[in-house]
Amino acid sequence: MTQNGVRGRGTRRSRVPQARELGWDDSLYEGSGVPGPRGAGEGEPSTRRGRRRAAQRPRSRRRRALRWTAVVFALLILGTAGAGYLYYQHLNNNIETAPLPDKNRVPKATPNAAGQTPLNILLIGSDDRNSKENLRLGGHKQSVGAKPLADVQMLLHLSADRSNMSVVSMPRDTLLDIPKCEDPETGEKFGALTREMTNVSLGRGGPACTVLTWEKLTGIHIDHFVMVDFTGVVSMADAIGGVPVCVDANIHSRNAKGEGSGLKLEEGITEVKGEDALKWLRTRYGFEDGSDIARAKAQHMYMNSMVRELKSSARLTNPAEMLNLAEAATKALKVDDGLGSVQKLADLGGELKKVPNSRINMTTMPYEYVGARVQPKPGEAADLFELVRDDIALDGKDAAKKKEELSDDPAAPPADTGVVVQNASGDATRAPLQGRATAVAELLKGKGYTLATAERPGAGDDTSQARTAIRFPSAELEGDAQALAKSLGLPLSSVKQATDVSGVTLIVGADWREGDTPPKPTPKTPAKKDIENGADEDACMHVNPAFTW
């Protein structure tokens, strides 16, 4: 059925992207975030009638028109430079920033052979209700005065060559070990927690603690964070002007107890904005099994659809619409200092824009239930995080392109190589195996590494790491570190430079709790059914029959 702009189940969207109808093309304005007129540099018209006329139009006339347009734009820019600068500063002043953690960090990713580096951004949705508007949108008066929770957490990984993007969600009720944190504004210190829900990390020093929690679990260095609250979601959704979402039946997210987001949509496609967009992103009761897992899937669908709309919408060629979006975005987002200006946010947008929709893949961390909560699924969660660490796309299409390169630095003999062994053999369900570092140090001595020593218990903050890894502090030790990896049968991808070690360091992970050699990692890509692809315009959320009307 189709009514009120809603597509019935079983039909396909026939709407041609508005930008294509108008003849706009993004390529001329690469990195600017603003689509430009198709063929503006070639005199290519956008209609059939225009094409027929173009055959009769002298080339020199088109060139004169282009030069005249350029002159007009130059005059406009010069005439409004003062006002433009003031408005630019106004937008910069809108942006709220907070620092990233400055210690206990995971090492940055090593550049690839071309010198390119991947980019990892943590997206955080706060349930803060300590403002009048957030309380109105979020309800739960009993939460006023409480510390905010990170109820949405997504890691956005942009590949080093910018060919693909992976997004990994973590359910808010995932039980994790949360590291010790410090509030950068107040200096308040928070001790480490064992098997606590991940969303409490935000209230233990702000986004920096959520970043540390992710790094501790995944071994992935987080370059930036972007955080938004209820009010920010609504203002951004209004500025974008509507995002198409789809349900396979009528839905009303409200049960007999009054629980639910209140989302009420007809079967098919509806463009949601404002508060309806927020309701979609918050809906749990009514989607599939009513879990946070289903909610994450709906959030992925919304994000994919939003990206498609922003890339194709002719709204972004309208200066007024652009200013509205810039105003909303700079007021809605809280970011780290490295993204704390309009220019830096625009640069990031330019990088993200390079990825085609078909290479955007989103998934949820593999999990298993522990009562009413979940925890990372042993093996499968580690595989997923290893894919991201090694810059391999979730669809596995570029796995064959990843080549290991030997260092030019010659390795010293094992007997002359000092090795420190750290015990990080714990995981989400088990404590580190006592004495494991000492046992592995003895194994290394048997391989000729007579200087190997076990780090004293408690010397490091990390007590768990999924995969065994080797770290070295400077380039002159890279060859030694790679030789150690070879002796243990580890891939060179497990060897990384780090600033928080003083020599070649072997970190024994949860994958090597027993045996004389660590298992060779063979990470598997997620099943296709577990991935939401950015080019899938026909995806619909399944509605639980108990919430239909």
Describe the structure.
With 549 residues, the chain is α/β, with parallel strands linked by helices. It contains 14 helices and 25 strands. The strands form 8 sheets. The chain has an 8-stranded mixed sheet with strand order 3-16-11-4-5-6-17-25, sandwiched between helices. The chain has a 5-stranded mixed sheet with strand order 21-20-24-22-23, covered by helices on one side. A two-stranded antiparallel ribbon has the order 1-2. Helix 4 packs parallel to helix 10 (319-332) and helix 7 (230-240) runs antiparallel to helix 10 (319-332). The chain is globular, with a radius of gyration of 26 Å. The two termini are 15 Å apart.
Strand percent estimate:
15-25%
Q: Please summarize the sheet with the most strands.
A: 8 strands, mixed
What is the helical fraction, as a range of percent? 25-40%
Oligomer: single chain
> Residue-averaged pLDDT, rounded?
80
Q: Helix tally?
A: 14
Sum up the overall morphology in one term. Answer: globular
What's the alpha carbon Rg, rounded to whole Å?
A: 26 Å
Strand order of the largest sheet: 3-16-11-4-5-6-17-25
| Uncertain regions spanning at least 5 consecutive residues | 1-57, 75-80, 134-139
Termini separation? 15 Å
By helix and strand content, what is the structural category?
Answer: alpha/beta
Q: Give the number of DSSP strands.
A: 25
